[in-house]
Design brief:
The chain contains nine helices and no strands. By secondary structure, it is an all-alpha fold. The chain folds into two domains: about 50 residues, Arc Repressor Mutant, subunit A, CATH 1.10.10; about 150 residues, Tetracycline Repressor, domain 2 (Orthogonal Bundle), CATH 1.10.357.10. The radius of gyration is 20 Å and the shape is elongated. The N and C termini lie far apart (about 70 Å).
Amino acid sequence: MEGRDAAKSRDLILDAAEGLFATRGYRGTSIAAVCKVSGLPTGSVYWHFGNKAGVALAVMQRGARAFFARMPRAADLEGGPAERLCQFFEAAAKAIAANSAFFRLEPAFQLESHEEEAIRMVLREVTDYTVREIVSVVEPAARDSGVPDPAGLAIELADLTMVLTRGSLLQGDIEGAERAMRRVHHLILLSIADAAEGARRAG
């Protein structure tokens, strides 16, 4: 299996697996089901991915790449800290909508695939990268507003962003997750203003 045919069969398998994982979960999806939906023989799945964990890993990696490709790097955003913060969360809401299949999978894999170290590593990488990027836009806005510990507040708010977004995704509500991102943005602004006001009163 070479070239274009190999790439096509690989994508067919990943598309089928992505849909099955999203509806049946990791444990509820079998190689046989992936083969049936993709229309490809069992040997193709094993040749490309080795086993079910390999399929799941490739699905997650593909979804993560597509998501991050749509997300601007914080360093590339323009304007002042508050403007960059707004741009980041607007882009995040759009990226979630554009990669809804990936975001339906992520909570399920968090809950169901703990025995697969490679999948856990991808999930950690996605989480760590996202938290770092959130911190990189929240911290300057907090510092610019006079928050005494902008780094600490940024980490706290990044963790809160992940919790609230995943809560919406666990319900399978992608539109709700988009709304959650926008509401988290407003919550972050209020939290920064509150921390800055508390510092002014204390000083």
